[in-house]
Amino acid sequence: MAAAIKTPGVYIKELNAFPNSVVEVPTAVPAFIGCTENQPTPNIPTRITSLAEFHSKFGGAPKTKFSYTAPAAAGAAPTGNAAPTGGAAPANATPANAAAPLPLVSPADNNRFLMYYGMRLFFDNGGGPCWIVSIGKYDYTKPKDKEKFKDALEALKKIQEPTMLVTPDAVLLDRPGWQEVCQQMLLHCAAMQSRVSILDVYDGNLPRESDETRDVITLFRDAVTDNLNYGQAYYPWVKTSIVDDSEVDFNFLTADGITALKAALSTEAKTTYADTDPRQRKLLELIDKVKAADAGATESNGKTTDPTHLSLVQASKTYRDAMKAIKDYLNVQPPSAGMAGVYTRVDNFEGVFKAPANTGMNSVIEPCVNINNDEQEDLNVPLNGKAVNAIRSFVGRGTLIWGARTLDGNSQDWRYVNVRRTIIMLEQSCKNAALAYVFAPNNASTWLTLKNMISNFLTNQWKAGALVGASREEAFSVDVGLGATMTSDDILDGFMRVTVKVALVRPAEFIVITFQQKQQTS
Protein backbone atom coordinates (compact mmCIF):
# COMPACT_ATOMS: atom_id res chain seq x y z
CA MET A 1 0.00 0.00 0.00
CA ALA A 2 1.33 3.44 -0.89
CA ALA A 3 2.36 5.66 1.97
CA ALA A 4 -0.41 8.03 3.10
CA ILE A 5 -0.03 11.56 1.77
CA LYS A 6 -0.39 14.05 4.59
CA THR A 7 1.35 17.18 3.29
CA PRO A 8 -0.51 19.40 0.78
CA GLY A 9 1.19 19.64 -2.62
CA VAL A 10 1.49 18.13 -6.08
CA TYR A 11 2.86 14.59 -6.33
CA ILE A 12 4.00 12.73 -9.45
CA LYS A 13 3.55 9.00 -9.83
CA GLU A 14 4.91 7.16 -12.88
CA LEU A 15 3.22 4.01 -14.20
CA ASN A 16 4.68 1.64 -16.77
CA ALA A 17 2.61 1.80 -19.93
CA PHE A 18 4.18 -1.19 -21.64
CA PRO A 19 4.92 -4.74 -20.53
CA ASN A 20 8.35 -6.33 -20.57
CA SER A 21 9.43 -7.60 -23.97
CA VAL A 22 11.22 -10.73 -25.14
CA VAL A 23 14.66 -10.01 -26.59
CA GLU A 24 15.95 -12.42 -29.23
CA VAL A 25 19.10 -14.14 -28.01
CA PRO A 26 22.18 -14.34 -30.29
CA THR A 27 22.06 -17.40 -32.52
CA ALA A 28 25.54 -17.62 -34.06
CA VAL A 29 28.15 -17.56 -31.30
CA PRO A 30 30.36 -20.65 -31.59
CA ALA A 31 32.68 -22.00 -28.93
CA PHE A 32 35.94 -23.43 -30.31
CA ILE A 33 37.93 -26.05 -28.42
CA GLY A 34 41.52 -26.82 -29.41
CA CYS A 35 45.23 -26.22 -29.01
CA THR A 36 46.78 -22.77 -29.43
CA GLU A 37 50.27 -21.27 -29.49
CA ASN A 38 49.64 -19.38 -26.24
CA GLN A 39 47.36 -20.35 -23.38
CA PRO A 40 46.74 -17.18 -21.34
CA THR A 41 43.85 -18.70 -19.36
CA PRO A 42 44.15 -22.50 -19.14
CA ASN A 43 40.82 -24.16 -19.88
CA ILE A 44 38.93 -20.93 -19.27
CA PRO A 45 36.53 -19.78 -22.05
CA THR A 46 37.61 -16.44 -23.53
CA ARG A 47 35.43 -14.27 -25.75
CA ILE A 48 36.96 -12.71 -28.88
CA THR A 49 35.50 -10.78 -31.81
CA SER A 50 38.16 -10.92 -34.55
CA LEU A 51 41.11 -12.87 -35.87
CA ALA A 52 43.43 -10.04 -34.76
CA GLU A 53 42.18 -10.50 -31.20
CA PHE A 54 42.79 -14.25 -31.50
CA HIS A 55 46.36 -13.52 -32.59
CA SER A 56 46.97 -11.17 -29.69
CA LYS A 57 45.65 -13.57 -27.05
CA PHE A 58 46.32 -17.04 -28.42
CA GLY A 59 49.14 -16.60 -30.91
CA GLY A 60 49.58 -17.83 -34.45
CA ALA A 61 50.03 -20.94 -36.55
CA PRO A 62 51.66 -24.18 -35.37
CA LYS A 63 55.12 -25.02 -36.67
CA THR A 64 54.11 -28.27 -38.30
CA LYS A 65 57.04 -30.45 -39.38
CA PHE A 66 56.95 -32.69 -42.45
CA SER A 67 59.07 -35.53 -43.71
CA TYR A 68 60.03 -35.48 -47.40
CA THR A 69 60.17 -38.24 -50.00
CA ALA A 70 61.87 -37.46 -53.31
CA PRO A 71 59.78 -38.13 -56.44
CA ALA A 72 60.58 -41.18 -58.50
CA ALA A 73 62.40 -39.17 -61.17
CA ALA A 74 64.61 -36.35 -59.87
CA GLY A 75 63.46 -32.99 -61.08
CA ALA A 76 60.17 -34.40 -62.44
CA ALA A 77 56.81 -33.20 -61.19
CA PRO A 78 55.23 -35.74 -58.84
CA THR A 79 52.24 -37.56 -60.27
CA GLY A 80 49.14 -37.17 -58.16
CA ASN A 81 51.07 -35.91 -55.16
CA ALA A 82 50.82 -32.13 -55.34
CA ALA A 83 47.49 -32.01 -53.54
CA PRO A 84 47.61 -34.43 -50.60
CA THR A 85 44.32 -35.61 -49.23
CA GLY A 86 45.03 -34.15 -45.78
CA GLY A 87 44.42 -35.50 -42.30
CA ALA A 88 46.57 -38.13 -40.64
CA ALA A 89 47.94 -40.67 -43.07
CA PRO A 90 45.24 -43.40 -43.00
CA ALA A 91 46.19 -46.97 -42.29
CA ASN A 92 44.02 -48.14 -45.19
CA ALA A 93 45.71 -45.91 -47.77
CA THR A 94 48.18 -48.55 -49.04
CA PRO A 95 48.25 -48.24 -52.83
CA ALA A 96 46.74 -51.19 -54.64
CA ASN A 97 49.41 -50.69 -57.29
CA ALA A 98 52.99 -51.07 -56.10
CA ALA A 99 54.05 -48.42 -58.59
CA ALA A 100 51.66 -45.83 -57.14
CA PRO A 101 53.60 -42.68 -56.21
CA LEU A 102 54.24 -41.89 -52.59
CA PRO A 103 53.24 -38.49 -51.18
CA LEU A 104 55.99 -35.89 -51.33
CA VAL A 105 55.42 -34.83 -47.72
CA SER A 106 53.70 -36.21 -44.64
CA PRO A 107 53.48 -34.65 -41.16
CA ALA A 108 55.62 -35.98 -38.36
CA ASP A 109 53.85 -37.69 -35.45
CA ASN A 110 51.76 -35.34 -33.24
CA ASN A 111 52.77 -32.38 -35.38
CA ARG A 112 49.43 -31.34 -36.81
CA PHE A 113 47.05 -28.84 -35.18
CA LEU A 114 43.90 -27.57 -36.90
CA MET A 115 42.47 -24.97 -34.51
CA TYR A 116 44.37 -21.96 -35.87
CA TYR A 117 43.58 -22.64 -39.51
CA GLY A 118 39.98 -23.35 -38.54
CA MET A 119 39.76 -19.90 -36.97
CA ARG A 120 40.97 -18.33 -40.21
CA LEU A 121 38.36 -20.29 -42.15
CA PHE A 122 35.66 -19.23 -39.65
CA PHE A 123 36.37 -15.52 -39.99
CA ASP A 124 36.78 -15.79 -43.78
CA ASN A 125 33.22 -17.14 -43.96
CA GLY A 126 31.60 -14.35 -41.99
CA GLY A 127 32.41 -15.30 -38.42
CA GLY A 128 32.03 -12.80 -35.61
CA PRO A 129 32.04 -12.99 -31.81
CA CYS A 130 33.02 -16.41 -30.50
CA TRP A 131 34.47 -18.16 -27.47
CA ILE A 132 37.84 -19.91 -27.37
CA VAL A 133 38.77 -22.66 -24.94
CA SER A 134 42.47 -23.44 -25.24
CA ILE A 135 43.18 -26.98 -24.06
CA GLY A 136 46.94 -26.44 -24.15
CA LYS A 137 49.85 -25.08 -26.12
CA TYR A 138 51.13 -26.84 -29.22
CA ASP A 139 52.88 -29.95 -27.95
CA TYR A 140 54.81 -31.79 -30.62
CA THR A 141 56.04 -34.52 -28.30
CA LYS A 142 52.90 -36.44 -27.37
CA PRO A 143 49.44 -37.31 -28.72
CA LYS A 144 46.36 -35.17 -28.04
CA ASP A 145 44.43 -35.94 -24.86
CA LYS A 146 40.67 -36.54 -25.10
CA GLU A 147 40.26 -35.68 -21.40
CA LYS A 148 41.23 -32.07 -22.11
CA PHE A 149 38.35 -31.78 -24.58
CA LYS A 150 35.95 -33.12 -21.97
CA ASP A 151 37.28 -30.67 -19.36
CA ALA A 152 36.67 -27.83 -21.83
CA LEU A 153 33.06 -28.94 -22.29
CA GLU A 154 32.63 -28.85 -18.53
CA ALA A 155 34.01 -25.30 -18.42
CA LEU A 156 31.55 -24.21 -21.13
CA LYS A 157 28.60 -25.19 -18.95
CA LYS A 158 29.13 -21.97 -17.02
CA ILE A 159 28.94 -19.79 -20.16
CA GLN A 160 25.45 -19.12 -21.50
CA GLU A 161 26.16 -17.24 -24.75
CA PRO A 162 27.61 -19.93 -27.09
CA THR A 163 25.14 -21.54 -29.46
CA MET A 164 27.49 -23.90 -31.32
CA LEU A 165 30.33 -26.25 -30.39
CA VAL A 166 33.24 -26.73 -32.79
CA THR A 167 36.33 -28.89 -32.16
CA PRO A 168 38.56 -29.06 -35.27
CA ASP A 169 41.41 -30.73 -33.35
CA ALA A 170 39.20 -33.65 -32.29
CA VAL A 171 39.87 -35.49 -35.58
CA LEU A 172 43.57 -35.62 -34.59
CA LEU A 173 42.77 -37.95 -31.69
CA ASP A 174 42.73 -41.69 -32.23
CA ARG A 175 39.35 -42.95 -33.44
CA PRO A 176 38.04 -44.11 -30.02
CA GLY A 177 39.05 -40.76 -28.49
CA TRP A 178 37.35 -38.80 -31.29
CA GLN A 179 34.21 -40.91 -30.87
CA GLU A 180 34.04 -40.20 -27.15
CA VAL A 181 34.50 -36.46 -27.70
CA CYS A 182 31.67 -36.43 -30.27
CA GLN A 183 29.36 -38.26 -27.86
CA GLN A 184 30.24 -35.89 -25.04
CA MET A 185 29.55 -32.87 -27.27
CA LEU A 186 26.06 -34.13 -28.10
CA LEU A 187 25.39 -34.96 -24.45
CA HIS A 188 26.56 -31.48 -23.43
CA CYS A 189 24.21 -29.82 -25.94
CA ALA A 190 21.24 -31.91 -24.82
CA ALA A 191 21.89 -30.97 -21.19
CA MET A 192 22.31 -27.25 -21.96
CA GLN A 193 19.42 -27.12 -24.51
CA SER A 194 20.92 -23.91 -25.91
CA ARG A 195 23.49 -25.04 -28.48
CA VAL A 196 24.25 -27.55 -31.20
CA SER A 197 27.41 -29.42 -32.23
CA ILE A 198 28.99 -29.25 -35.67
CA LEU A 199 30.88 -32.52 -35.97
CA ASP A 200 33.66 -33.51 -38.35
CA VAL A 201 33.80 -36.92 -40.02
CA TYR A 202 36.94 -38.79 -38.99
CA ASP A 203 39.22 -39.20 -42.04
CA GLY A 204 36.67 -37.16 -43.96
CA ASN A 205 39.28 -36.34 -46.59
CA LEU A 206 39.05 -39.93 -47.88
CA PRO A 207 36.50 -41.29 -50.38
CA ARG A 208 33.88 -43.78 -49.27
CA GLU A 209 34.46 -47.50 -49.62
CA SER A 210 32.15 -50.45 -50.28
CA ASP A 211 33.64 -52.27 -47.29
CA GLU A 212 31.57 -50.96 -44.36
CA THR A 213 34.34 -51.75 -41.89
CA ARG A 214 36.49 -49.14 -43.65
CA ASP A 215 33.86 -46.71 -44.95
CA VAL A 216 34.33 -43.32 -43.25
CA ILE A 217 30.58 -42.50 -43.21
CA THR A 218 29.53 -45.87 -41.81
CA LEU A 219 32.16 -45.58 -39.09
CA PHE A 220 30.98 -42.05 -38.31
CA ARG A 221 27.36 -43.15 -37.99
CA ASP A 222 28.35 -46.01 -35.71
CA ALA A 223 30.17 -43.52 -33.49
CA VAL A 224 27.17 -41.26 -32.71
CA THR A 225 24.10 -42.77 -31.12
CA ASP A 226 22.23 -40.43 -28.74
CA ASN A 227 20.94 -36.83 -28.72
CA LEU A 228 21.20 -36.79 -32.50
CA ASN A 229 18.98 -33.75 -33.04
CA TYR A 230 21.64 -31.58 -31.42
CA GLY A 231 24.30 -32.50 -33.98
CA GLN A 232 25.06 -32.10 -37.66
CA ALA A 233 27.97 -33.22 -39.78
CA TYR A 234 29.41 -32.37 -43.19
CA TYR A 235 31.35 -34.49 -45.68
CA PRO A 236 33.89 -34.36 -47.23
CA TRP A 237 36.68 -32.14 -45.91
CA VAL A 238 37.63 -29.20 -48.09
CA LYS A 239 40.69 -27.92 -49.91
CA THR A 240 41.11 -24.30 -48.89
CA SER A 241 43.26 -21.33 -49.86
CA ILE A 242 43.89 -19.97 -46.36
CA VAL A 243 47.61 -20.85 -46.49
CA ASP A 244 49.41 -19.31 -49.48
CA ASP A 245 52.83 -19.86 -51.04
CA SER A 246 54.46 -17.10 -49.00
CA GLU A 247 53.71 -18.82 -45.70
CA VAL A 248 55.74 -22.02 -46.17
CA ASP A 249 59.47 -22.63 -46.50
CA PHE A 250 62.03 -25.39 -45.84
CA ASN A 251 61.73 -24.80 -42.08
CA PHE A 252 58.53 -26.86 -42.22
CA LEU A 253 60.68 -29.95 -42.86
CA THR A 254 62.21 -32.20 -40.23
CA ALA A 255 66.00 -32.60 -40.14
CA ASP A 256 65.71 -35.87 -42.09
CA GLY A 257 63.29 -34.19 -44.47
CA ILE A 258 65.77 -31.40 -45.17
CA THR A 259 68.51 -33.96 -45.81
CA ALA A 260 66.28 -35.78 -48.31
CA LEU A 261 65.25 -32.52 -49.98
CA LYS A 262 68.86 -31.33 -50.31
CA ALA A 263 69.79 -34.64 -51.95
CA ALA A 264 66.90 -34.26 -54.44
CA LEU A 265 67.86 -30.64 -55.12
CA SER A 266 71.50 -31.58 -55.71
CA THR A 267 70.46 -34.29 -58.15
CA GLU A 268 68.24 -31.78 -59.97
CA ALA A 269 71.08 -29.25 -60.18
CA LYS A 270 73.51 -31.79 -61.61
CA THR A 271 71.06 -33.18 -64.17
CA THR A 272 69.81 -29.77 -65.26
CA TYR A 273 73.13 -27.94 -65.65
CA ALA A 274 76.53 -29.08 -66.87
CA ASP A 275 79.36 -29.26 -64.34
CA THR A 276 80.99 -26.27 -65.99
CA ASP A 277 77.82 -24.19 -65.92
CA PRO A 278 78.07 -21.45 -63.25
CA ARG A 279 74.34 -21.84 -62.60
CA GLN A 280 74.98 -25.31 -61.18
CA ARG A 281 77.57 -23.90 -58.78
CA LYS A 282 75.22 -21.10 -57.63
CA LEU A 283 72.36 -23.54 -57.11
CA LEU A 284 74.56 -25.91 -55.11
CA GLU A 285 75.68 -22.98 -52.96
CA LEU A 286 72.05 -22.14 -52.28
CA ILE A 287 71.27 -25.76 -51.42
CA ASP A 288 74.15 -25.81 -48.93
CA LYS A 289 72.52 -22.93 -47.04
CA VAL A 290 69.37 -24.98 -46.40
CA LYS A 291 69.60 -25.96 -42.74
CA ALA A 292 67.07 -27.18 -40.18
CA ALA A 293 65.70 -24.45 -37.94
CA ASP A 294 62.77 -23.90 -35.62
CA ALA A 295 61.49 -21.02 -37.71
CA GLY A 296 62.58 -19.05 -40.74
CA ALA A 297 62.78 -15.30 -41.07
CA THR A 298 59.24 -13.97 -41.22
CA GLU A 299 57.40 -10.68 -41.33
CA SER A 300 54.83 -9.72 -38.70
CA ASN A 301 52.06 -11.10 -40.93
CA GLY A 302 53.67 -14.55 -41.05
CA LYS A 303 55.06 -14.25 -44.58
CA THR A 304 58.49 -15.84 -44.95
CA THR A 305 61.39 -13.58 -45.93
CA ASP A 306 64.22 -16.12 -45.79
CA PRO A 307 66.49 -15.16 -48.75
CA THR A 308 67.58 -18.75 -49.35
CA HIS A 309 63.97 -19.88 -49.61
CA LEU A 310 63.04 -17.02 -51.93
CA SER A 311 65.99 -17.79 -54.21
CA LEU A 312 65.24 -21.51 -54.33
CA VAL A 313 61.62 -20.83 -55.27
CA GLN A 314 62.90 -19.03 -58.36
CA ALA A 315 65.67 -21.50 -59.19
CA SER A 316 64.32 -25.01 -58.52
CA LYS A 317 61.17 -26.81 -59.65
CA THR A 318 61.84 -29.65 -57.19
CA TYR A 319 61.87 -27.12 -54.37
CA ARG A 320 58.67 -25.45 -55.61
CA ASP A 321 56.95 -28.84 -55.77
CA ALA A 322 57.99 -29.62 -52.19
CA MET A 323 56.72 -26.28 -50.88
CA LYS A 324 53.47 -26.68 -52.82
CA ALA A 325 52.96 -30.13 -51.31
CA ILE A 326 53.35 -28.66 -47.79
CA LYS A 327 50.99 -25.79 -48.59
CA ASP A 328 48.37 -28.12 -50.09
CA TYR A 329 48.55 -30.44 -47.09
CA LEU A 330 48.02 -27.56 -44.64
CA ASN A 331 45.11 -26.29 -46.72
CA VAL A 332 43.11 -29.49 -46.34
CA GLN A 333 40.73 -28.74 -43.47
CA PRO A 334 37.70 -30.32 -41.79
CA PRO A 335 34.65 -28.15 -42.56
CA SER A 336 33.20 -27.57 -39.07
CA ALA A 337 34.92 -24.22 -38.42
CA GLY A 338 34.03 -22.91 -41.86
CA MET A 339 30.42 -24.05 -41.38
CA ALA A 340 30.25 -22.11 -38.10
CA GLY A 341 31.18 -19.05 -40.15
CA VAL A 342 28.51 -19.88 -42.74
CA TYR A 343 25.90 -20.22 -39.97
CA THR A 344 26.92 -16.80 -38.67
CA ARG A 345 26.73 -15.22 -42.12
CA VAL A 346 23.31 -16.70 -42.91
CA ASP A 347 21.93 -15.77 -39.48
CA ASN A 348 23.12 -12.18 -39.78
CA PHE A 349 21.90 -11.56 -43.32
CA GLU A 350 18.75 -13.69 -43.49
CA GLY A 351 17.90 -15.16 -40.10
CA VAL A 352 18.36 -18.33 -38.09
CA PHE A 353 15.22 -19.75 -39.74
CA LYS A 354 16.98 -19.86 -43.14
CA ALA A 355 18.60 -23.23 -43.80
CA PRO A 356 22.41 -22.83 -44.06
CA ALA A 357 22.51 -24.60 -47.42
CA ASN A 358 22.73 -23.81 -51.15
CA THR A 359 25.41 -21.29 -50.26
CA GLY A 360 29.14 -21.30 -50.84
CA MET A 361 32.13 -21.40 -48.54
CA ASN A 362 34.71 -18.65 -48.84
CA SER A 363 38.41 -19.56 -49.12
CA VAL A 364 37.44 -23.04 -50.32
CA ILE A 365 38.73 -24.30 -53.68
CA GLU A 366 36.91 -27.63 -53.84
CA PRO A 367 35.86 -30.59 -51.68
CA CYS A 368 38.41 -33.35 -51.17
CA VAL A 369 36.00 -35.89 -52.65
CA ASN A 370 33.74 -35.21 -55.61
CA ILE A 371 30.21 -36.44 -54.88
CA ASN A 372 27.46 -36.99 -57.47
CA ASN A 373 23.68 -37.34 -57.02
CA ASP A 374 23.74 -41.12 -56.64
CA GLU A 375 26.49 -41.00 -54.02
CA GLN A 376 24.61 -38.36 -52.03
CA GLU A 377 21.46 -40.46 -51.69
CA ASP A 378 22.82 -42.51 -48.81
CA LEU A 379 24.37 -39.44 -47.21
CA ASN A 380 21.09 -37.51 -47.16
CA VAL A 381 18.43 -40.18 -46.55
CA PRO A 382 19.97 -43.25 -44.89
CA LEU A 383 17.76 -45.90 -43.32
CA ASN A 384 19.05 -45.10 -39.83
CA GLY A 385 18.29 -41.39 -40.33
CA LYS A 386 21.84 -40.26 -39.51
CA ALA A 387 22.09 -37.82 -42.38
CA VAL A 388 25.48 -36.33 -43.26
CA ASN A 389 25.29 -33.11 -45.25
CA ALA A 390 27.25 -33.05 -48.50
CA ILE A 391 29.66 -30.38 -49.64
CA ARG A 392 29.60 -30.57 -53.43
CA SER A 393 31.21 -28.98 -56.43
CA PHE A 394 28.91 -27.99 -59.31
CA VAL A 395 30.04 -26.96 -62.79
CA GLY A 396 29.52 -23.24 -63.21
CA ARG A 397 28.32 -22.79 -59.61
CA GLY A 398 31.37 -23.64 -57.54
CA THR A 399 31.46 -25.42 -54.19
CA LEU A 400 28.16 -25.38 -52.29
CA ILE A 401 26.81 -26.77 -49.03
CA TRP A 402 24.20 -29.20 -50.34
CA GLY A 403 22.37 -30.37 -47.24
CA ALA A 404 20.65 -29.00 -44.14
CA ARG A 405 19.80 -32.02 -41.99
CA THR A 406 20.62 -32.90 -38.43
CA LEU A 407 21.79 -36.38 -37.49
CA ASP A 408 18.18 -37.11 -36.48
CA GLY A 409 16.96 -37.37 -40.06
CA ASN A 410 14.07 -39.75 -39.32
CA SER A 411 12.44 -37.26 -36.94
CA GLN A 412 9.69 -35.08 -38.38
CA ASP A 413 10.32 -32.61 -35.55
CA TRP A 414 14.10 -32.25 -35.66
CA ARG A 415 15.10 -33.26 -39.18
CA TYR A 416 16.39 -29.86 -40.28
CA VAL A 417 19.24 -27.76 -38.91
CA ASN A 418 17.32 -24.47 -39.12
CA VAL A 419 14.30 -25.94 -37.27
CA ARG A 420 16.47 -27.17 -34.40
CA ARG A 421 18.33 -23.86 -34.13
CA THR A 422 15.19 -21.72 -34.45
CA ILE A 423 13.48 -23.60 -31.64
CA ILE A 424 16.57 -23.10 -29.47
CA MET A 425 16.44 -19.36 -30.17
CA LEU A 426 12.70 -19.14 -29.34
CA GLU A 427 13.08 -21.23 -26.18
CA GLN A 428 16.04 -19.33 -24.79
CA SER A 429 14.58 -15.92 -25.65
CA CYS A 430 11.30 -16.68 -23.87
CA LYS A 431 13.10 -18.32 -20.96
CA ASN A 432 15.29 -15.26 -20.35
CA ALA A 433 12.29 -12.94 -20.48
CA ALA A 434 10.25 -15.13 -18.13
CA LEU A 435 12.96 -14.95 -15.47
CA ALA A 436 11.57 -11.54 -14.52
CA TYR A 437 8.38 -13.24 -13.31
CA VAL A 438 9.93 -15.85 -11.03
CA PHE A 439 8.17 -15.40 -7.64
CA ALA A 440 5.60 -13.04 -9.21
CA PRO A 441 1.98 -13.62 -8.08
CA ASN A 442 0.68 -16.73 -9.84
CA ASN A 443 -2.59 -15.11 -10.85
CA ALA A 444 -4.51 -14.01 -13.93
CA SER A 445 -2.73 -10.66 -14.13
CA THR A 446 0.70 -12.29 -14.39
CA TRP A 447 -0.61 -14.91 -16.81
CA LEU A 448 -1.98 -12.26 -19.15
CA THR A 449 1.23 -10.23 -18.98
CA LEU A 450 3.37 -13.25 -19.79
CA LYS A 451 1.05 -14.37 -22.58
CA ASN A 452 1.06 -10.95 -24.23
CA MET A 453 4.84 -10.67 -23.90
CA ILE A 454 5.47 -14.01 -25.64
CA SER A 455 2.74 -13.35 -28.24
CA ASN A 456 4.26 -10.01 -29.20
CA PHE A 457 7.65 -11.64 -29.62
CA LEU A 458 6.26 -14.45 -31.78
CA THR A 459 4.32 -11.94 -33.86
CA ASN A 460 7.57 -10.21 -34.74
CA GLN A 461 9.13 -13.57 -35.61
CA TRP A 462 6.16 -14.37 -37.84
CA LYS A 463 6.52 -11.05 -39.63
CA ALA A 464 10.25 -11.69 -40.10
CA GLY A 465 9.50 -15.02 -41.81
CA ALA A 466 10.46 -17.49 -39.09
CA LEU A 467 6.89 -18.84 -38.74
CA VAL A 468 4.40 -19.86 -41.42
CA GLY A 469 0.71 -19.01 -41.58
CA ALA A 470 -1.62 -16.51 -43.22
CA SER A 471 -2.45 -15.11 -39.79
CA ARG A 472 -0.93 -14.99 -36.33
CA GLU A 473 -3.43 -17.60 -35.18
CA GLU A 474 -2.15 -20.04 -37.80
CA ALA A 475 1.51 -19.28 -37.03
CA PHE A 476 1.50 -19.74 -33.24
CA SER A 477 -0.55 -20.02 -30.08
CA VAL A 478 0.25 -19.19 -26.45
CA ASP A 479 -1.83 -20.68 -23.63
CA VAL A 480 -1.54 -20.14 -19.88
CA GLY A 481 -4.04 -20.24 -17.07
CA LEU A 482 -6.07 -22.31 -14.65
CA GLY A 483 -7.98 -24.99 -16.50
CA ALA A 484 -5.99 -24.39 -19.69
CA THR A 485 -2.43 -25.35 -18.75
CA MET A 486 -2.55 -25.63 -14.95
CA THR A 487 -4.53 -27.32 -12.24
CA SER A 488 -5.22 -25.99 -8.76
CA ASP A 489 -2.51 -28.28 -7.43
CA ASP A 490 0.00 -26.74 -9.87
CA ILE A 491 -0.75 -23.30 -8.46
CA LEU A 492 -0.47 -24.53 -4.87
CA ASP A 493 2.87 -26.15 -5.77
CA GLY A 494 4.13 -22.89 -7.29
CA PHE A 495 4.06 -23.92 -10.96
CA MET A 496 3.10 -21.56 -13.77
CA ARG A 497 2.81 -23.57 -16.99
CA VAL A 498 2.85 -21.91 -20.38
CA THR A 499 2.23 -23.84 -23.59
CA VAL A 500 3.59 -22.38 -26.82
CA LYS A 501 2.94 -23.93 -30.24
CA VAL A 502 4.74 -22.64 -33.33
CA ALA A 503 4.57 -23.48 -37.04
CA LEU A 504 8.19 -23.29 -38.12
CA VAL A 505 9.56 -22.72 -41.60
CA ARG A 506 11.02 -25.84 -43.18
CA PRO A 507 13.30 -25.79 -46.21
CA ALA A 508 12.10 -26.80 -49.68
CA GLU A 509 14.57 -29.66 -49.85
CA PHE A 510 13.02 -31.37 -52.87
CA ILE A 511 11.49 -29.20 -55.58
CA VAL A 512 9.46 -31.24 -58.08
CA ILE A 513 8.32 -29.48 -61.26
CA THR A 514 5.82 -31.54 -63.27
CA PHE A 515 5.42 -30.94 -67.00
CA GLN A 516 2.56 -32.32 -69.04
CA GLN A 517 1.54 -31.77 -72.63
CA LYS A 518 -1.86 -30.21 -73.30
CA GLN A 519 -4.04 -30.47 -76.36
CA GLN A 520 -3.75 -27.76 -78.99
CA THR A 521 -6.60 -25.26 -78.68
CA SER A 522 -6.00 -22.93 -81.64
Fold and architecture overview:
- This protein has 522 residues and is α/β, with parallel strands linked by helices.
- Helix content is 34%, strand content 13%.
- The chain folds into 3 domains: 30-62 and 110-239 and 333-402, Rossmann fold; 66-107 and 243-331, no CATH class; 442-522, no CATH class.
- Strands 2-5-1-6-7-8-12-13 form an 8-stranded mixed sheet, sandwiched between helices. A 3-stranded antiparallel sheet has the order 10-9-11.
- The radius of gyration is 29 Å and the shape is elongated.
- What is the number of strand segments? 15
Proportion of beta-strand residues? 5-15%
Tell me the overall shape.
elongated
Tally of individual helices = 15
Radius of gyration: 29 Å
The helix-strand sequence is: EEHEEHEHEHEHEEHHHHEHEHEEHHHEHE
| Proper CATH architecture of the largest domain | 3-Layer(aba) Sandwich
Percent helix = 25-40%
Tell me, what is the CATH class of the largest domain?
Answer: Alpha Beta
Give a short synopsis of this structure:
Helices cover 34% and strands 13% of the residues. The chain is of the alpha/beta class.
Map the helices and strands.
Elements: E1 30-36, E2 46-48, H1 51-58, E3 66-68, E4 105-107, H2 115-124, E5 130-137, H3 146-156, E6 164-166, H4 175-192, E7 196-200, H5 216-223, E8 231-235, E9 238-240, H6 255-272, H7 278-288, H8 307-315, H9 317-331, E10 332-333, H10 336-349, E11 364-367, H11 373-380, E12 389-394, E13 398-402, H12 417-434, H13 444-464, H14 472-475, E14 476-480, H15 488-492, E15 498-502
Parallel strand pairs: 1-5, 1-6, 6-7, 7-8, 8-12
Antiparallel strand pairs: 2-5, 3-4, 9-10, 9-11, 12-13, 14-15
Helix pairs in contact: 2-10, 3-4, 6-7
